[in-house]
């Protein structure tokens, strides 16, 4: 048999606490717990210098320098790739345009040859 909510000791204390605190108190508690959760690692890092790497260590500084150089090189390569891609697209458009112009000139020449051939044939056999 389950105890009624009024006789249960935990629910009774919860009800009394709820009556004692003003509205919005639980939000304040939530805010403080969030602040504690985010600030606790910072406080631990400042109090415990063993966890923080030595910023002046030459090995770490050399690795950071290598990383920045590689990032710069990567950005430069991405920029070059973008420029070459744009250039390639422009060249492709020019090739397509030249191809269509060449084909249209061939078709136009063929039509002219057909017309002149027909007129020459008529002149030849004119009565």
From TrEMBL:
Which InterPro entries does the UniProt entry name for this protein?
Hook_C
Q: Which GO terms describe its biological process?
A: cytoplasmic microtubule organization
- Domain Hook C-terminal intervals: 42-118
Pfam families to which the protein is assigned, alphabetical: HOOK (PF05622)
Q: Name one GO molecular function term.
A: microtubule binding
Keyword Hydrolase recorded:
no
Protein name as catalogued: Protein Hook homolog 2-like
Which gene produces this protein? LOC104944763
Where in this chain does the entry annotate a coiled-coil region? 60-87
Q: Is Coiled coil among this UniProt entry's keywords?
A: yes
Key words, A-Z: Coiled coil
């Amino acid at each position: 048999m389950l105890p009624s909510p009024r006789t249960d000791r935990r629910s009774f204390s919860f009800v009394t606490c709820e009556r004692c605190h003003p509205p919005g108190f639980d939000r304040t508690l939530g805010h403080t717990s969030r602040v504690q959760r985010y600030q606790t690692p910072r406080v631990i890092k400042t109090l415990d210098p063993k966890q923080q790497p030595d910023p002046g260590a030459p090995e770490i500084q050399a690795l950071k320098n290598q990383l920045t150089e590689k990032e710069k090189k990567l950005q430069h390569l991405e920029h070059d790739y973008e420029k070459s891609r744009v250039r390639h697209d422009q060249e492709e458009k020019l090739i397509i345009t030249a191809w269509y112009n060449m084909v249209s000139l061939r078709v136009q020449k063929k039509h002219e040859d057909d017309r002149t051939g027909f007129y020459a044939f008529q002149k030849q056999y004119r009565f």
